[in-house]
Design goal:
The complex is a heterodimer of chains A (140) and B (115). Chain A has 140 residues and is mainly α. Chain A is built from 6 helices and no strands. The N and C termini of chain A lie far apart (76 Å). Chain B has one domain: Orthogonal Bundle (Arc Repressor Mutant, subunit A). A 3-stranded antiparallel sheet of chain B has the order 1-3-2. The chains are: A mainly alpha (140), B mainly alpha (115).
Chain lengths: 140, 115
């Protein structure tokens, strides 16, 4: 029974934020082992559940460092995040445009070929995509 | 009375700082000391203890005792109150003293029956 309680408590410890868990989980488990001998298990579970909720409701600024290799850096520039968002929206937009209106590929292809300008890697890849679309949806 | 940004302290925080005021303790030692100093009327669980310890450590009111200051066979973490922690504890005790003084004086006052 005690082993099962220990497993259950250990499982609850995994619900704590990673940074908190990596710092205190071992000690909490040790105290749990000591307190179980005194028969205070219910209070320990209630205490753990309450603190898990409290910990997760804290503002993110108090939960920055996580365990392992991944660390969330609060000081990441908002501009960097905005640029990433714009790029993601741009990619999605181009993707949807190609799916909904394949003619856009021909516009791009004409633009790159007729002017005779070497656009290098981009033009060759756009040409390849245009050829692929041509095979799928031949021009009338 | 000087009021610090930490005042009033929560019951758990006050008891943890009080437990550490006389000696460095490990987590379970703090729990036992709190039970002893409150004559068993107040007990904290490990969740409450470490949640509050984390906050106190973030505020530099409590620190980890350096490994070099511990016996070699001691593997547990010990916690120590800092001078800032003592200051905050002193302010809180002073605040509580004033509350008690005010309460005692009010209880001694005799109110007129028809007031």
């Amino acid at each position: 029974m005690k082993a099962l309680l220990r497993i259950a408590y250990r499982g609850m410890l995994h619900l704590y934020p990673a940074s908190f868990r990596s710092e205190f989980a071992d000690e909490m488990l040790w105290i749990f082992d000591e307190e179980v001998l005194r028969g205070n298990t219910t209070a320990l579970f209630v205490d753990a559940a309450r603190c898990i909720v409290v910990r997760h409701m804290r503002p993110p600024s108090e939960q920055l460092a996580t365990s392992g290799y991944y660390v969330e850096i609060e000081s990441a520039l908002p501009a960097q995040r905005i640029a990433q968002m714009i790029m993601a929206i741009g990619y999605l937009g181009v993707g949807f445009a190609i799916i909904l209106a394949p003619e856009i590929i021909w516009i791009l292809k004409v633009g790159t070929v007729t002017h005779g300008v070497d656009h290098g890697w981009l033009s060759s890849h756009l040409g390849a995509v245009a050829t692929w679309f041509d095979a799928l949806w031949p021009r009338r | 009375m000087k009021i610090s940004s930490n005042s009033p302290l929560s019951a758990a925080t006050l008891h943890i700082l009080l437990a550490l005021a006389s000696e460095d303790l490990h987590g379970y030692g703090i729990i036992q000391e709190i039970a002893r100093q409150s004559q068993g009327s107040y007990r904290v669980g490990p969740g409450t203890l470490y949640d509050n310890l984390k906050k106190l450590m973030d505020q530099k009111l409590v620190i980890d005792v350096p490994r070099s200051a511990l016996p070699k066979d001691e593997e547990r973490r010990f916690y120590r109150i800092t001078s800032s922690g003592r200051e905050v504890l002193g302010e809180e005790v002073e605040r509580l003293r004033e509350v008690v003084t005010t309460a005692q004086s009010r209880l001694r006052e005799r109110r007129p029956r028809n007031a």
